[in-house]
Predict the structure.
Amino acid sequence: MSYIELKNIEKSYGKKIVLKNFNLSVERGEFVGIQGESGKGKSTLLNIIGLLEPCEGEIWLNGHRVSSKDYRKLSKTFNIKIGYLFQNFALIDDVSVYENLNIVQSLGNKSEKRQKIIEALRRVGFEEEVLKQKFMNYPAGNSKGSQ
């Protein structure tokens, strides 16, 4: 069973069709990259997955079919498990890397949030020593690859 499954997703803005018969299946823990030209539906797709934008088709999250009436209730549950990184990093220069990640991690108590952020940084290659040195740095103090 897929963690996220989209079936025959369609979305348009007025007469402009952004997504048509789009299907996607993502397993738990899987990292997926989405790329494409400007205006081709990448952000729309992420908003649909994040339950921010209704569409035609079926959305399944962790084996549960999501209907439009469930959007608000389920978005609170699933948004903490689905995230995305903007093309131009979109980090706030005036706060630390930790604080940037903490902004996104909106649910849970402080120690849980800290642990989740540390685990996420470890998964993308930060080692313990690097975490201690750069974790509280401001984004400009780290290379783009470290951001």
